[in-house]
Structures are given as structure tokens and as C-alpha cells.
Amino acid sequence: MGRIIFIGCSLFLHFFSSASSFQIKWSFSGVASDFIRPSAIQLTVDGIEKPLSGCFSQAEVGTFSDSLSSGQHHLAIAVWIRQQDHWEKHLVENDYEMDAVYDSMVQITSNQLLFLHFNISTHGIVAQWQPLVLQYPKLLDLSIRSIFTDIPKGFDLTVRYRIYGNDDLLYTSQAATLSTMKWIKCQVPQSTTDLKIVLEVFYNGFWEEHLAIFGYQMDAVYFLRGNYRQEQIFTVKSSIASGQFKVKRHKKRVFF
Fold it and tell me: What are the pLDDT digits (tens) for 7-58?
């Protein structure tokens, strides 16, 4: 019996040790300023769709992280664009200049980073693979005290927080309604710069940022510039009816 357990544990450890970190960064060029929209990507691995990434403006670099087991995989990546009240794929059949898609068989043996660049002017796609170097710096606590008030009837939306550092996704919270989202706790690498806290809303099957351009009351986004050198507690106070979104930063534990 002990031998069976040992073999099972060995197989379990082998499975997880053979998984590699996989990151995608994507960008656009040649998009007229009047047509810049939020974008997201969806990764399909061997026919299995992964959850949609966070959304990023076509004027910035988007990022998405996952893991892949070692071996050969069929990867398909499609760009989605937010248009008015819906999301749609960036395809010629949807009146875009080009199909913003990537399809390839790849061999995964280590951590990998894929850069995808979509040039709308030339209808070209540049894909560059390179090793992904993972760093394991000291981690510091980050907490968000979330207070939403004056929520109109029918607007107690399903939301989550996403935290980015240096454009990389660091943490995704569990989903909850605005009225029940109280505390978010995670850790971020010390000396993280350009920290970004984003409130996302689950809308019509997609997660999207709570932004005014999407028809929400305000931009529920907070930026912290400079190095993240010590644990932080943020209090988010938002009045949905009035469209206020205020974030206060505390350097000491004032609520625990």
C-alpha cells in the first residue's frame, strides 16, 4: 500500500514539475487614434479555450499568463475588441482590416514568452518566442478594503479585482457582487513599479474593466507610481449613484 502511495505521489509531482510558465504580450500599430479600442485575447490550447485575458487599450501592451505542460501543443490566439456594448473578434468578416489571430504548433520544454505584434497598416503579424526568466523576489502584503455604496437596484454587479505590476498580471481576486466584496488580500514583489489596481465587471460572458467608455459610472482604476517598498492597505470607497471612486493608501495596518 505504501508503495502505491509513493508511486502516486511521484506521478503527481512529475506532472506539476513538467508544467512550464507561459506568458503572452501583444501590441498593435497602425491603428488610427479614432479607432483605438480596448482589446483582449483568448488562448485555445489543443482545442480547449482558456478564460479571456484582461482588457488593454490597443495603444498599450497587453499581457496574459498561464502554464503549459511540456510537449507539443496546438495554440490558437484570437484578439477580441470592445465595440460599444459588445465584444467581437478582430476579423475581416467583422469589418476589421485584418484577422488578428495566431495559430501554431509549438514544442514546450521550458518557460516561454511570446510577443505578438499586429501591424494594421501592413496586415502583418510578427511572433517572437524567447525564454521567460522568472524571478522570485521578496513578496510584500497588499490589501484592499472595498466599500461600495448607493448601489441602484439591478446594479449590484458581479465584479473582481485585478492587480498589475509593470504591466504583468500579479493577482486576480475571487468574483463577488459589489455589495459583498469587502477585503482583497495578496502579495506583490518588492520594488514593483507602476502598480495598477483594476475593478472588472462580468458582462455578457466577458470580464471587462469598469470604465466610463463602457457605459459605467466612472473609471474604477487606480495607479501607484514608484517602487512598492512596504506592505500597503488601500481603501476603495465608491458611490455608484454619484459616480465617485476614491482610493486612500495606508502605510500601516489600521484595520486588522
Answer: 344 433 443 447 888 999 999 999 998 888 889 999 999 999 988 888 888 9
The parts of the chain modelled with pLDDT lower than 50 are 1-17, 254-256
Please tell me the distance from the alpha carbon of residue 144 to that of residue 149, in angstroms, as a whole number.
Answer: 16
Tell me which residue has cell 506539476.
16
- Measured CA to CA in angstroms, residue 35 lies from 29, 61, 83, 84, 92 at distances of 12, 16, 10, 12, 15
Annotate the chain with three-state secondary structure: CHHHHHHHHHHHHHHHHCEEEEEEEEEEECCCHHHCCEEEEEEEECCEECCCCCCEECCCCEEEEEEEECEEEEEEEEEEEEECCEEEECCHHHCCCCCCEEEEEEEECCCEEEEEEEECCCCEEEEEEEECCCCCCCEEEEEEEEEEECCCCCCCCEEEEEEEECCEEEEECCCEECCCCCEEEEEEECCECCEEEEEEEEECCEEEECCHHHCCCCCCEEEECCCECCCEEEEEEEECCCCEEEEEEECCCCCC
pTM above threshold 0.90: no
